[in-house]
Amino acid sequence: MGAEVIIVEVVGWTAAAIILAAYILLSLGKLEGRSYLYQWMNVIGAGGFIVNSGYNGAIPSAVLNIVWAAMGLFTLWSVWRARQSARAVIP
């Protein structure tokens, strides 16, 4: 097994651990669904899955994770905008 394969596997397993940790923390009430940390964990984890899935030719999984990452980025943007609007209202 070459170094490239090992790196892709480490990226995939790290992504799985990050997404699993995000879900566990959400389920335990330690994170909120619209928190920056939860969303960044999902975006980073999905990015790792995109690399691993794409490399291994699992195109449906890669596409799913592209959508997953896009949803996370959109949520981060919408939370940021809502917080900016709330700050603008408070004198």
TrEMBL record:
Keyword Cell division listed: no
Keywords per UniProt: Membrane, Transmembrane, Transmembrane helix
Residues of the CBU-0592-like domain: 9-83
One of the Pfam families matching this protein, by short name: CBU_0592
InterPro entries per UniProt: CBU_0592-like (IPR058058)
The keyword Transport belongs to this UniProt entry's keyword annotation: no
Chain ranges passing through the membrane: 6-25, 61-80
Descriptive protein name: CBU-0592-like domain-containing protein
